[in-house]
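The passage that follows is intended for readers who have already worked through the single-chain material. We present the inputs for a multi-component assembly, then the predicted structure in tokenized form, and finally a short commentary. You are encouraged to pause after the input and sketch how you expect the pieces to fit together before reading on.
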Amino acid sequence: MNAAPELLETGELSKLTRVVVGGMESSAKALSEMTGQEIGIKPLYIGFSPLKEVPFLVTNPDTPVVGIYLIAYGEINGHIMLLFPIEYAFQLVDTLMGCWSPEGQQRELGEMETSALGEVGNITGSFFLTHLAEVTGKSVQPSPPAVIMDMAGAILDIVLTDVAQKTDKCLLIETAFQQQDCRIEGLLLAVPDPESLQLICDSLR
Amino acid sequence: MQDSQAIAVGLGEVQVAKGDGAVLVAYGLGSCVAVCAYDTAVQVAGMAHVMLPQSNGSGDPSGKYADKAIPILLDQLAAMGARQERLRVKIAGGARMLVAQGFADKLDIGARNVKSVTDELSRRGLKILASDTGGNKGRTIQMVPKTGAIKVRSIGGPEREL
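Having made your guess, compare it with the prediction:
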């Protein structure tokens, strides 16, 4: 993980990292219960990135993915985005529907698939934000999820154009979900608003 | 599919290229708009990757706002020998990525970007010759500096000439 010494003290960043990892563990546990499969997390990156680098850091901006987007709002505001490579998203749907097979089943993002993936977003977002609220003592909750299948860059525009109205850099928290046999992999991006980041850091002192 | 011969035009960036130079590509545009301009006579092409409609007096000089990006693009093209009266301008992008219920209309930043880009160009007497905007699909836009040819690609659809 990369630190961002110019904007956060090392101590603050490591406290923040612990909170994020705690939130992710809580989400992964809920996802494990939901899918009946052991899902772990792998923290990849926490640090400040220029906005224009984010699509390249996360993946190739041209790559087709499924994104599950939630707005975090309350005393703490920000964005949560889950990104799954398309084949993993459909495998996740198959797993949730109890019809997983090595060849895969689902290939269309219909109403049922959207709803199943939205539920993954709900669970992940709620558990992550509940943990954040508990640790900071600040209120925060997720919006209903939006499920989108498109190029990663196009989906990330949702988050980045909003952040760009306030700043050119954002704190990017990137974590991967991983099943033990690596069948399903996904990325969770949490991007707090600049004022909320300050609030989170202050409340961790 | 990232082309090794390509210059990526990132968020809020402006890039220009000449003749046999590398292809200009804006990858995976959602609500962002690619403004493409080309002068046939000198084979100079430029592309701006606009993120937001208006700088609203912000001192930020970057190309992320339509009202800042277009003058930057025109200046860079002029510096490469392009003449404004010969420019052929085309735009693509400005999709609405969030169509799920419960997400407010104000999030339709794509349409606002397209309007602002159109207004800024027309203020400078520049007409848009072709456009591929709106909808709710992401786009990758590729421009060949030698010919000014522009290709637009979305997921699940054929590549189309703009």
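Commentary: Chain B has one domain: 6-161. Chain B has two helices and ten strands. How closely did your sketch match?
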